[in-house]
Design a protein that fits this description.
This protein is α+β, with helices and mostly antiparallel strands and 125 residues long. It contains two helices and ten strands. It has a single domain, classed as 2,3-Dihydroxybiphenyl 1,2-Dioxygenase, domain 1, CATH 3.10.180. InterPro entries: Glyas_Bleomycin-R_OHBP_Dase (IPR029068), Glyas_Fos-R_dOase_dom (IPR004360), VOC_core (IPR037523).
C-alpha cells in the first residue's frame, strides 16, 4: 500500500540549489548527506522532498513539484520580492496573465528554481 509522497529533484549544483531554497523559499534542509550529495527538506504539512546532484538537472520540461497555498497572490508577491520569476504561458489549454493561470476551481503559477526544475504553486477556489 502506498503511504507517503516524497518528491526528488535534480540539481546540477547542490550548493546553488540550497542557496535558492533558503533565500527564495526560506527552506533549509533537515538532512544533508555528503556521500550521496543529497539534501532532504521537510515541510510543515508533513511532506518531504530531496534535491540530489546530477548532470541530468534541467532537462525536464514538465511540472516537477507543486505547493498549495491559501493565498496565491500574496505568495507570489512574497516570492517576487525574493527574486523569483514566474513563467508565462500561452499555449492551447493554458494561458497565464501576470504569471497566473485561472479556472473556476483553482489559480496556478509556475517558476523555475536555479536548477531548471519547474515548480508550481496553486490555490483552490
Amino acid at each position: 500500500m502506498l503511504k507517503e509522497l516524497h518528491t526528488v529533484l535534480p540539481a546540477a549544483d547542490l550548493r546553488r540549489a540550497q542557496a535558492f531554497y533558503h533565500d527564495a523559499l526560506e527552506l533549509d534542509p533537515a538532512e544533508a548527506h555528503e556521500e550521496s550529495r543529497t539534501l532532504v527538506y521537510r515541510t510543515g504539512a508533513g511532506g518531504t522532498f530531496e534535491i540530489y546532484e546530477t548532470s541530468n538537472a534541467g532537462t525536464a520540461r514538465n511540472t516537477q513539484m507543486c505547493w498549495t497555498t491559501d493565498d496565491l497572490d500574496a505568495e507570489m508577491s512574497r516570492l517576487r520580492e525574493r527574486g523569483v520569476v514566474f513563467e508565462d504561458y500561452d499555449v492551447p489549454g493554458l494561458k497565464t496573465v501576470n504569471g497566473v493561470a485561472a479556472t473556476d476551481e483553482m489559480k496556478s503559477a509556475w517558476f523555475r528554481d536555479t536548477e531548471g526544475n519547474f515548480i508550481c504553486i496553486f490555490q483552490m477556489l
